[in-house]
Write a structure and sequence with these properties.
9 strands, single chain, five-stranded antiparallel sheet, 2 domains, 194 residues
């Protein structure tokens, strides 16, 4: 059967498949790197000049996706280990739960946990010992890790963690400060806000 003899329904199936793929964020350019069309998976194993009577697509993971998944796993494991060592088992448990939250968790408004925030948490815990502060861990609606604790005089100090910065809220002074994730800046701030 030549391409010109392919039934209109087969061409429609191909167009629908292409539209569905574009809906997944994929385009036809570079598609070969992301999708593997397996002739053996097609219902009749019939190929017509690149057009199939029945479209059968098997997704394959690209090397880039594999590396990204491994990197995400390492970031999550490092953050969990740091939280467990510096903040305790309960904080690590809560952080692990936050990792399972899907988009829309906060009555439709909450975002997924940001990997950059987990990286920032790992950096912050390497710089500052929060273990003696009875710190609690939360997640902001934007998906950032939030750590807070009550200081000796009872006022709250809350830190929202981003990848390379932290937002500190001091209840006693009713002030906020953005700090770069720099050992000197963070150390200086914490020494003045015990």
């Amino acid at each position: 059967m030549r391409e010109s003899e392919v039934s209109p329904s087969a061409l429609q199936a191909q167009r629908v498949g292409a539209v569905a793929l574009r809906g997944k964020g994929l385009t036809t350019s570079g598609l070969a790197n992301r999708i593997h069309v397996a002739p053996y998976a097609l219902p009749y194993n019939e190929l017509f000049s690149g057009i199939t009577r029945h479209v059968g697509v098997r997704w394959s993971v690209t090397e880039e996706q594999t590396l990204q998944t491994l990197a995400e796993k390492r970031v999550k494991e490092a953050a969990l280990q740091a939280a467990r060592e510096k903040l305790g088992e309960h904080a690590a448990y809560r952080l692990e739960r936050f990792m399972t939250y899907q988009e829309g968790w906060d009555s439709g408004r909450g975002g997924q946990l940001q990997l950059g925030s987990l990286e920032g948490l790992t950096k912050l815990l390497a710089m500052v010992d929060l273990g003696n502060r009875d710190a609690a861990i939360f997640m902001s609606p934007d998906g950032n890790v939030v750590v807070n604790w009550h200081r000796n005089q009872g006022s709250l100090l809350e830190i929202e963690i981003f990848q390379d910065t932290i937002l500190c809220f001091d209840e006693a002074e009713d002030s906020e400060a953005f700090l770069s994730m720099d050992r000197f800046a963070v150390g200086e701030y914490f020494s003045h806000h015990e």
